[in-house]
Design goal:
Elements: H1 21-37, H2 52-73, H3 75-79, H4 81-85, E1 92-93, E2 99-100, H5 101-111, H6 126-142, H7 170-202
Antiparallel strand pairs: 1-2
Helix pairs in contact: 1-2, 2-5, 2-7, 6-7
């Protein structure tokens, strides 16, 4: 018996590789949402380990969505994707190798330009920026390397990644993560549409 049976598809091919990050992000996001909607967790545990896979799925969806936007819409990373992938699972860098995803996103939005009336071509409000900042700050505080909800200890087996009594409100958590991912998905959709329009113009359509 095999775990994986591969089929040759002749239509509707799935996008993989560098331009498949967005599809992977959506898959993790929808899986997390499915676990929430179907209440596939035990809300009475202390700590509630059954919520950890949900947290991981949301965390990974966030990371992949950020990388998808930058690789597809920031020429720095389109030309040198390895520099983005080398960030591993961190959402913020410090020191000489410091990086800031939101600063990168702001740069992408700014380069999209403005309409004749001065309104930005890509719309994202200050409230939405604040939401994204708050979410990234919390992940940086509680799970900077993206391992806390996958492993109980660090790679060197020297540090506990969560407190023995660690728990959280999975309902509130999922609501905030849904909001952040919706913001990013909408931003990616607008940027994708702009790129499509540019392609049509270049082809004289």
């Amino acid at each position: 018996m095999k775990l994986f049976e591969f089929e040759q598809r002749t239509s509707f091919p799935s996008v993989t590789g560098l331009h498949g990050l967005g599809s992977y992000a959506a898959a993790y996001w929808h899986a997390a949402k499915g676990m929430i909607d179907n209440k596939l967790f035990n809300s009475h545990g202390q700590p509630d380990f059954s919520t950890f896979p949900i947290a991981f799925l949301f965390r990974h969806a966030l990371e992949l969505m950020l990388k998808a936007i930058l690789i597809e819409h920031d020429e720095r990373y389109s030309e040198d994707p390895q520099s983005l992938l080398d960030r591993n699972h961190k959402l913020k860098g410090k020191g000489s190798n410091g990086f800031d995803y939101l600063m990168d996103l702001r740069s992408v939005v700014s380069k999209a330009g403005v309409f004749e009336d001065g309104e930005p071509v890509v719309s994202i409000t200050q409230e939405q920026w604040d939401c994204l900042q708050a979410v990234l700050d919390e992940w940086e505080k509680y799970d900077p390397d993206g391992f806390a909800f996958r492993y109980s200890i660090d790679k060197k087996a020297k540090k506990d990644l969560t407190h023995p009594d660690f728990t959280f409100d999975i309902g509130q958590f999922s609501q905030v993560m849904e909001e952040a991912l919706e913001i990013l998905a909408s931003l990616k959709s607008e940027l994708d549409q702009l790129r499509y329009q540019d392609v049509l113009k270049s082809e004289g359509v």
